[in-house]
Amino acid sequence: MHKRMKIWLGVLCWILFGILLFNVLHKTSIIYSIDSVGFCLVKPVLQLKTNLLTELTFLGDPVTVGILTIGLMLLLWRHRRIADSVWYGMLQFIGYCLVILLKYSVIRPRPTGRLVAVGGYSFPSGHTFSTIILTFTLLAILVPKCKKQYQKILVILCGILWITIIMYSRVYLHAHYLTDVIGAFLLACGWWLLANSQRKTFFNWLQKPIKK
């Protein structure tokens, strides 16, 4: 994707996030409507379904994703892809700092009737954000290695499916509102696009002291 396109799409994602954030902060009726629809979409509540989604959502936990990211960084480093290792690690960990900053700025309580034990604040969803960044990272690494078009499509579809499962599980388990996961999706996409649009500039800036 062209650099200018990344910037425009990234800015659009963050503008939409800003609009959502404004409505969340002011507790507007549209937020209540969206969240009500979200809880309706994940029904019915079944024990088997709850057990399965509880296990799956663990894989999207920021701690789990952080460990996987470190493992991926070490693997890339071993294969002498040092720039990729540093870059993708920065995207995940600096990005999640942004999520924490927003959580403790918005201070939105989590939904009632939670099916899992979870603390902290609700907006935006940390599980969703970290999962999206890790999935985008894996897609960026794997898709170029696919020699056939159907392989690329299959890998991308698997990535979309995994992100959808994590977003669905967070709402189903009443750990988040639908607007929490939508907000995290927009935040993560904007962060990924804007950061990657500046990757070359960033590494050129790092190399300046070395060249001198």
From TrEMBL:
Residues 88-196 form the Phosphatidic acid phosphatase type 2/haloperoxidase domain. It comes from the Bacteria. The keyword Transmembrane applies. The chain crosses the membrane at residues 7-25, 56-77, 86-106, 126-143, 150-169, 175-194. This is Phospholipid phosphatase. Keywords: Membrane, Transmembrane, Transmembrane helix. The lineage of its organism: Bacteria, Bacillati, Bacillota, Bacilli, Lactobacillales. It holds the Pfam family PAP2. It comes from Limosilactobacillus caviae. Gene3D superfamilies: Phosphatidic acid phosphatase type 2/haloperoxidase. InterPro entries: PAP2/HPO, PAP2/HPO_sf.
